[in-house]
Write a structure and sequence with these properties.
Length: 308
């Protein structure tokens, strides 16, 4: 039986075992007489499976109640279906993850479900861009992965991975970041990279590089996910005290003011070499690509629900 076009498919990605968040959002939806069907994920693999189920069952409004990683899985599922199908589906978010940077960009706040649902009900749709990293895996297979927010190469990918792990244990976003920064002292601080951005070739040691279609966890604060461009921040190796100064600027939203940060705006980044540098996509660590890889952007390919 066909699903009513007004019915929402809600993909709930719990942060823990508590059912309080689920009960709260269901109460908010019921108060507003929203028609919806609820599915709950247990792992990232189940996010993709459930997302494809919602798509193939004909839901035209799919809401992810989760964080950046869950949204990343959702958009990669949407990119697997034909454009004419994808364009009929509006994707929304109710922030409920370890990191909610893309939701925060649009002013969706984790602690205000009522406001978020009221905005989603108005169904204001904006086409948004997706970045895409194209690479070869260890099996020699050509792969690609889309992202809403950013790709990190180098030290920050390591920090983001540690932050995700520590937050799952500590619960606090700020405390997990502080612990991750402390652990960072014991990790490698620079990587030999050969990168081409526009007409510039960077062939030297680099501490970290962020390629953002979105705000990039503060590293690409001027990026907007609808101009068909990528913002890039390249950070050269610097002293330990300067590292902590840079992290403070990152926390306070002034990352580009650091003297070791070199910003670019481009349509494509080519990474010819980045030995031993970890890579993360929307805050989730991925396997290090084999050989050269590149990152580009596809403009206005996802229909996203934004605030009024």
């Amino acid at each position: 039986m066909a699903v009513e076009e007004t019915r929402w498919g809600i993909l709930y990605c719990p942060k823990g075992r508590s059912s309080k968040q689920r009960e709260k959002i269901q109460a908010v939806l019921d108060e507003r007489h929203v028609q919806y069907d609820f599915v709950q994920s247990e792992t990232s693999d189940s996010v993709e499976r459930l997302m494809l189920m919602l798509i193939h069952n004909g839901y035209k409004t799919i809401i992810v109640m989760g964080g950046d990683s869950a949204l990343n899985d959702a958009v990669n599922c949407l990119m697997q279906v034909e454009k004419q199908v994808r364009d009929t589906i509006a994707l929304g978010v109710i922030p409920n993850g370890v990191m909610n940077d893309f939701a925060r960009y649009w002013d969706f706040k984790e602690g205000n479900m009522e406001q978020t649902v009221d905005w989603l009900i108005k169904r204001r749709v904006r086409p948004v861009d997706l970045g895409c990293i194209r690479y070869t895996n260890k099996k020699g297979e050509k792969c690609n992965r889309y992202f809403l927010n950013c790709v990190n190469v180098g030290l920050i990918a390591d920090v983001m991975n540690m932050r995700r792990q520590t937050r799952s244990m500590l619960g606090s976003r700020t405390l997990s970041f502080i612990v991750s920064v402390f652990l960072m002292i014991f990790h490698r601080m620079d990587y030999k990279m050969n990168v081409k951005i526009n007409s510039d070739v960077i062939n030297r040691k680099v501490m970290t590089m962020c390629v953002g279609s979105g705000p990039g966890y503060g590293q690409t604060p001027n990026a907007v996910p609808y101009n068909g461009l990528l913002d890039v921040s390249v950070v050269y190796h610097t002293g330990l005290l300067q590292v902590f100064a840079g992290l403070w600027l990152l926390l306070t939203g002034r990352f580009l003011n650091h003297r070791s940060v070199h910003p670019y705006r481009t349509r494509e980044v080519r990474i010819e070499e980045a030995k031993h540098a970890l890579v993360s996509i929307d805050g989730r660590l991925m396997g290090t690509p084999v050989g050269a890889y590149y990152i580009d952007v596809e403009q206005e390919v996802i229909q996203f629900l934004i605030p009024d």
